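Usage example:
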Amino acid sequence: MSVLVMKFGGTSVANLDRIRRAAKRVGLEVAKGHDVIVIVSAMAGKTNELVGWVNETSPLFDAREYDAVVSSGENVTAGLMALTLQEMDIPARSWQGWQVPLKTNGAHSAARIVEIPTENITAKFAEGMKVAVVAGFQGISPEGRITTLGRGGSDTTAVAFAAAFDAVRCDIYTDVDGVYTTDPRISDKARKLDRIAFEEMLELASLGAKVLQTRSVELAMRYKVKLRVLSSFEEPSDEAGTLVCDEEEIMELNAVSGVAYSRDEAKMTLTGVEDRPGIAAAIFGPLADAGVNVDMIVQNISDEGFTDMTFSCPTDQVLRAEKAMQDAQAKGDISYEALVADKNVAKVSVVGIGMRSHAGVAAKMFKALKDENINIKVITTSEIKISVLIDRKYMELAVQALHDAFELEKGA
Amino acid sequence: MSVLVMKFGGTSVANLDRIRRAAKRVGLEVAKGHDVIVIVSAMAGKTNELVGWVNETSPLFDAREYDAVVSSGENVTAGLMALTLQEMDIPARSWQGWQVPLKTNGAHSAARIVEIPTENITAKFAEGMKVAVVAGFQGISPEGRITTLGRGGSDTTAVAFAAAFDAVRCDIYTDVDGVYTTDPRISDKARKLDRIAFEEMLELASLGAKVLQTRSVELAMRYKVKLRVLSSFEEPSDEAGTLVCDEEEIMELNAVSGVAYSRDEAKMTLTGVEDRPGIAAAIFGPLADAGVNVDMIVQNISDEGFTDMTFSCPTDQVLRAEKAMQDAQAKGDISYEALVADKNVAKVSVVGIGMRSHAGVAAKMFKALKDENINIKVITTSEIKISVLIDRKYMELAVQALHDAFELEKGA
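Running the assembly step on the lines above writes:
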């Protein structure tokens, strides 16, 4: 028997009408002969309301109680979905995380899944149940208390169930109809991708953050779970959405699959840094300790024993970075002339698994930016991504120019 | 160590402010040296919202899913209450029904409590925890599914915990400040009772229905749990509220403790019924099968082999009763001339454990009604209650006259 996992996000189960609409999609898959595991989020807005109450009650809350409170929204949707399916004469029942049981570690509010025993649900499928509705986002700790997997955790629940039940596919229903070559709000040439490789999806996190929780993509990659992202507001079709899959399942790899961006970047430059062995560790150690997420790092050529060190970090961590550097200088661990923060920058990246086998991607990228007279401040590369830091005012222009240069409006 | 159980109803935890106010009361009891078990309801209105969703989704709902959905409100309040107590530096944690575990039978939506193991909570008290906050109204079935105890079930949860933990008292915080000699909206002479016996409380259900779930009183009586009903909106005091207790704890029993009433009564008369052995069973069997709650029954003296049979039932069951009688006649089980329904009646009762040892209560009641020219249609008596059916328009007058006649405005 083939198991299909279907996950419905908060907007897809926001009210009874939408739950009915989602249930109809489940019915279509049951009619195809699948045993279906449905993972549901809380109704849109409910989890935010609960989180708000917890924060107002106790700003430094006990995460165990946080989990007990905020997990309740999913329980409501799970029961209502099971009832809706039953009304459609589809045998269904709900499971809360502890009933499965979805076993996690004890890291409350950010728990990691340890194990999903399949016996209970498999036994019910064998008895004729067609749909197991499972409350997403939640599990049970070794101490028997409720845990949650972090915001967006229902995606991870869905992928973990797909892995545990060796599902044919994991369909993530959300309010966007797939993954695009870039943000359609920035380029009207943005094209929905039919397929994207796991690694690309992870690198496109800045595009994809609202589509899938990053952890769920990592998990899908590790267990080779076919993930499909699609909208619950579109007509059902086999071609709907974007399939996130192993690169081997993508026939023709483009050099570049998408153009991502991030506005939320600051460029920090330490000038007049003494250039000696260990200086990088002396700088980035304290930054890491202070919780600064350093992204790009560039070290200029040394001049008479002194150098400039440039790095980027999220704009809201600039103050924290400055304090960390001042403290390190005060302690005598490092010495520098000045720390210059430039908050008017943005990061633009091209991402594509195909660039591993296509030469000249970087050159083409830099030429496209030069043709628009966009100055590049910092460059970093990985195996499947090239990122540049540029003036923020050119960000949209750069995204459009790169989308054009790599002809992303054309399909494979 | 002495355990105190405190139960807060929906209006007492309706928002974060009220939860804080309730937590302060808990803090006062902790300061007195009690280990406290707090039972919480859902925030006012939440359970109704959830029940509404279930009914809209599935009018003939699967009670197991109903329970999974409607139990979620209490989980939210339990976590928030634990967090509030922690903010006050009172060691506390929440328990959901299945975590205790509060074991019930499998009668979903109306489950009966089977067992409350005390080990888990007792162990935490021994470790220094001062307050166990338990989500009311819910338990776990032998199959490991969530059950609920029926509306108002948190009262029963509280009493059951008080019995299991041999608590010194079970305080039920609600939005009324106790049990009155009659409804203060009907008689401005109504007086709050300091103490009332369990049996009286049960008979005063029509007064007490909004104060305590009847089952909780039965349970308290069986296990001799001292129950106190008090308002969470009044200043704390040792004399607050009404103590519902064993009659032996009430020094001086009044002949009559209170005057109860019910507007929701209909008087049904079957005329020309053949008077033969077994006729009562032939009439009331089908009524019971049809789910009609027959209260009072009067059979007139037989006249030439025929009699009139009068009974009362809730007004909204009149149609059901009529159909049951027609069906029974059609099947030849009974024969009668007519079934006359009088919906313009009300029931007024005087209740008092003391009437067992005081003669003349009935005579005094009938005289008081006669003095007001109120005609009595039906009379029934139990050991501690006398009830009459009268024209509904005289109901308020009758309540006031009886309250005066038995001088209930005066304390013991």
